[in-house]
Every structure is written in structure tokens, then in C-alpha cells.
Amino acid sequence: MINRQLLFKIALLIALAVISYLVFSKPNYPQSIPNLDKVGHIGSFFALAWLTYLAFRPRWYLMFATLAGYGILIEMVQSRLPYRSADMADFVADMTGVVLFYFSLWGYRKYFRAAMLRE
Fold first, then answer.
1. Tens digits of residue pLDDT in 41-65
2. By the 8 A CB rule, do 7 and 56 touch?
3. d(Cα 48, Cα 97) in Å, to the nearest integer?
4. How many CB atoms lie within 10 A of CB 7?
5. Residue 45 in contact with residue 75, Cβ under 8 Å?
6. How many CA atoms lie within 13 A of 51 on its CB side?
């Protein structure tokens, strides 16, 4: 029997594999919308933060440090790839995704969960 936490750990591993593939592979699409990749970074790290939270329930500073390390690793590897480049703005977008996750979690706990308790 697979419990919920194990399922989220598996989903996190799959998400890490897919995101790593996307950020390290050679892009074969036109960049027609400026800074659309930043939206991808924000969304990817929001999802990674969410899955990490559901899989491990880590302290906020441990998750932030771990995902920051992964974001730095991505940029370091991309700086070595001839078809990619490192960009500090990508790292900022990564961390923005994590912060947005925590704001969302805070809002859920403060408003939605409190409303459910009143009913």
C-alpha cells in the first residue's frame, strides 16, 4: 500500500527529472514572448516547493536553502553548456516561486482553513 507521503515523494522525483531535462536540454522553440522563461522558472519552483512540502513537511529555511542550492546548481551547469547561459534573473525567478508558495500556504491557512473551522 502506497501512502500519500510516498506518492508525493515519487511525484517530486518525477518533477525534478522533468525540470532538470527542460533546463539542461537544447531549446528548440522560438522565444516570441519576452521573459516567458521567467514565468516557467517561477511556476517550476512553486511546484517543487509544493511537492517538497507535501512530501517532507520541512522547515521553511531548509526548503528554501535546498531549492536555492538546486537553483544555483542549474545556473552553474547552464553556464557550462554552449547552448545555454546562466542568468541571475532566472535564480531570482526561482526563489520568487518558492516565496509565492509560502504566501499561498499562509493565505490558505489564514483564510480558507479558518473559514472551514467556523462552519
1. 999 999 999 999 999 999 999 999 9
2. no
3. 9
4. 12
5. no
6. 18
Residue at 118: amino acid letter = R
C-alpha cell at 5: 507521503
Distance CA 39, CA 34 (A): 10
Q: Are 9 and 58 in contact (CB under 8 A)?
A: no
41: exposed, middle or buried (Cβ count in 10 Å: 0-12, 13-18, 19+): buried
How far apart CA 42 and CA 18 sit, in angstroms, is 15
Give tens-digit pLDDT for 21-42. 999 999 887 778 888 889 999 9
> What backbone phi and psi angles, to 5 degrees, belong to 103?
-65, -40
Place of cell 522560438: 30
